[in-house]
Amino acid sequence: MPEFRSEPRVGVWLIGARGSVATTVVAGCAAVTAGLNAPTGMVTETPLFADTGLPSLSSLVFGGHDTVDCPLPKRAEALAAGGVLPHGLPSALSSELTAADREIRSGGPSAGDTRDPDDLIDAFTTDILDFVRRHGLARAVVVNVASTEPTPTGSTLPPSSLYAAAALRAGCPYVNFTPSTGLHHPALASLADASGLPYAGRDGKTGQTLLRSVLGPMFAQRSLTVLAWSGTNLLGGGDGAALADPAAAAAKNAGKERVLADTLGRTPEGETHIDDVPALGDWKTAWDHITFDGFLGTRMTLQTTWQGCDSSLAAPLVLDLARLTSRAHEAGLTGPLTDLGFYFKDPVGDGPPALGDQYAALAGFAERLRELQGEGNAR
Ligand SMILES: NC(=O)c1ccc[n+]([C@@H]2O[C@H](COP(=O)([O-])OP(=O)(O)OC[C@H]3O[C@@H](n4cnc5c(N)ncnc54)[C@H](O)[C@@H]3O)[C@@H](O)[C@H]2O)c1
Question: Where is the Myo-inositol-1-phosphate synthase GAPDH-like domain (predicted)?
Answer without folding.
Answer: 207-311
